[in-house]
Amino acid sequence: MTHLDDAKNWLAQDPDPITRDELAALIDGAELGEATAIAGLRDRFGSRLAFGTAGLRGELGAGPNRMNRVLVAQAAAGLARFLLDRADRPEGGAPSVVIGFDGRTNSDVFARDSAEIMAGAGVRVTLLPRMLPTPVLAFAVRHLDVSAGVMVTASHNPPRDNGYKVYLGDDDQGAQIVPPSDGLIHEAILEVARSVAVGDLPRSSEFEVAGESVLDAYVERTAAIAGGEQREPFVAVPFVYTPMHGVGWEVSQRVFAAAGLGEPTVVAEQVEPDGGFPTVSFPNPEEPGALDLAIATANRAGAELIIAHDPDADRLAVAVPRPESATADSAGWRRLSGNEVGALLGWRAAERLQREGQDGALAASLVSSPALGAIARHYGLDYRDTLTGFKWISRTPRLRFGYEEALGYLVNPGTVRDKDGISASVEFLTMVGELAAAGRTLTDRQNDFDALFGAFASAQVSLRVTDLSRIGQIMSALREQAPAEIGGVRVREVDDFIRGFGDYPPGDILRFWMHGGARVIVRPSGTEPKVKVYIDASSEQGSVTERRAAAQAEVAALEAGMRALVA
């Protein structure tokens, strides 16, 4: 099937000259029988980006399996229909939406298209005034008390990607969409695509562009995390900051100053927004080499800490100098894992609750370290493991802190109901400054943690695929013939989430419990063409050094075993 008719129909309604030229060339080639052109049409029109885990997310290009102005227009119209159908509108009031965008290619175009189409459909629209971080949009949903929020971003995905992330207000309190809303929005989008050409969708320029008050309020509320005049003794620690070519610097700089955290040394090559991300292969601080420029800057500046955000600033990465006694790489720095940062911030949240005589809950995604659960038990707090994603973490009743190992932290749920790299930076920098004032370091704090709760070790195996069918094959093989042992460690029990498990809804997840208490979880990535494996082990026996060695040795054995299984 060449999809020629589908492509011609799409071309007739595409307002973007770049994707029109791309598609016209493919159509011409397919009509001449060129195999690459036929394959290109099949790739673009053989399926459609589904509105699901993170809204829409995909590579820029023509066709329904790409991010482009036609697809975004259909998404905006479908979301508007969903909001108009569900809204409780006393006296005929209209539902409302706030729309934000980052610095990726076409983010501003997609945002304006969405504003015009949703306004044309009868939704009250507020467009944020310029490219801003995702946490500002998530904050604005609650601050403006609107029905929904849209953020045009692909977060830390490759440079050629973009996406469309949706939040709901009202009873959802500014959290990301979950079932059944995502399915209903998807069906509304499909109905638009089937019944209306994009050029026939009504548009309106009668929407509001937000003033600076929204950003001012976010800065004020986020800086307040540092405690102001009420905080513990504090010494500002010199640090380096990079937004990784994203939109984090303007807002972070204001927050750092308002919180009294000092002025960082910025990575000059990465401080301005640039959707091409020219200095990194992947704009994700988890990727090897992504922090190389930050490390070089820190070495020149004599900094004691590196703070990095991903391009939309909803994730936080931290790097610290390696101890002199450790085997250092040539740069002499180590990035803390998301589990390490999550455990330190979670411990801090639990201590604060105890000090203030308050109660509450901690939460983490089920693929994150069990360390946060140990903290909750120690302090008598509620704890919940959730499915991956902050749309689930943020919905935990009485939540006071939540995190996931992929560098996402929710430290201020009363303000932002999503992960927020900027507020997490404030909390982390405040913690480091308080330690410094007491003559202590992060290493001291981590030693105290392992002595109190046990040593926790984690690792990941990430298998990127070019053929998406390979993901299903790997998961099916593990289900059909579950391993009896992994890396020489016997499997005690297997939990399969495919039809739901316990209180969890159905999901493509396998969890292996090992004899001795370690855990291995396998699942497809929700946003990238990968199979991801999460490995966790812990030890409470012996000294801190012995505990760490035991946990790390078990994780290493399990990692080697899983690489052999899924390679």
TrEMBL record:
Cofactor(s) the protein requires to work: Mg(2+)
Any Pfam family hit: PGM_PMM_IV
Species for this entry: Microcella pacifica
TM region(s), chain numbering: none
Matching PANTHER family: PHOSPHOGLUCOMUTASE 2B-RELATED, PHOSPHOMANNOMUTASE 45A
Keywords: Isomerase, Magnesium, Metal-binding, Phosphoprotein
Matches recorded under Gene3D superfamilies: Alpha-D-Glucose-1,6-Bisphosphate, subunit A, domain 3 (3.40.120.10), Alpha-D-phosphohexomutase, C-terminal domain (3.30.310.50)
Signal sequence range: none
Record protein name field: Phospho-sugar mutase
One of the protein's GO biological processes: purine ribonucleoside salvage
Family (UniProt): Belongs to the phosphohexose mutase family.
Alpha-D-phosphohexomutase C-terminal domain location: 515-541
Stretches assigned to coiled coil: none
Ranges of residues in domain Alpha-D-phosphohexomutase alpha/beta/alpha: 49-189, 217-319, 338-442
Organism domain of life: Bacteria
